[in-house]
């Protein structure tokens, strides 16, 4: 799959932009702050329903405008699909496929992309929520219905937390909260599916991660992934480093084996503490993913270069899984200001590693940072305007 045309209206610093794209590599060149990242961010949003730079939608709407519109014509062979998303300042966002209204959460079913940016260093060095988001975004692209499961879990979690906070304020004991059992059942049902899906994904990522890391650095540093589950007693908030675990619930009985059984048992054990704190202390919202390099936690031990390579390898591994699954070809691979952080050898190795993808979009402030094989087509950006296009720009 590739993006054949991208159209933006009142998105970030673009009042209006129209851009034709082709398979192969395209480099967006411009000084910092001109809008080149905004173009690829819009493509990434269609795939993940989120920005890699901000948590909300409001910053994506141009100042003074009521809504931003992103349109992308996706092509795969002889088939074309027009995907449209309207981000509103007031009210819910809206989406269309071939001019017919659809739920916004349906878009990742059709638009597949993997974006790597400097912010991805937080995958290695940041908080657990960044790593959870990495897994969940990939899960939704591979299995779009999980967007609904995740949204339902968040709603149940919010209701359960509200009940716990109310009980704490009123000083109610557990036996005075019969509705809590109902919320527990729903939380366990939804949360167990999310946990199981994440565990399966982590297992699938192991091989492609090792291959991608080796391709980038030309060394076998044995990158690894280890799920850290709150339902098994891990407390990711117990240690500021994020890679130590501490028991937050008693050991599970031997006969408790399924994810749902472990989740339910942990909630029962934690109920007094939850009533005391007014918050849900176990579930996929409190899990983490431990990143290992040579059997040591990458967070805290890996150098800047190793952390950068690990995060990039995770994105490339994600792209490889999407490529294996998809009936519409490769995902669009986006590298946002990546090459400036790499030495010459790693630039060349990365260019070789991604050369087989159908469409690669690269942003750079300095064209000389980008390896020559990726500069077949150059698009220059200046102050929210596409000022020059072409291979010999």
Automatic annotation (TrEMBL):
Return the Pfam families for the record: SMC_N
Binding of ATP occurs at: 30-37
Q: What is this protein called?
A: DNA replication and repair protein RecF
The UniProt function text for this chain reads:
The RecF protein is involved in DNA metabolism; it is required for DNA replication and normal SOS inducibility. RecF binds preferentially to single-stranded, linear DNA. It also seems to bind ATP.
In which broad location class does this protein mainly occur, judging by the first location in its UniProt entry?
Answer: cytoplasm
**SUPFAM superfamilies, per the entry:** P-loop containing nucleoside triphosphate hydrolases
Q: Where in the cell is it found?
A: Cytoplasm
Q: Which segments cross the bilayer? A: none
Which keywords are on file for this protein? ATP-binding, Cytoplasm, DNA damage, DNA repair, DNA replication, DNA-binding, Nucleotide-binding, SOS response
InterPro entries, per database record? DNA-binding_RecF, DNA-binding_RecF_CS, P-loop_NTPase, RecF/RecN/SMC_N, RecF_2
Q: Which residues form the RecF/RecN/SMC N-terminal domain?
A: 3-364
* Record family assignment: Belongs to the RecF family.
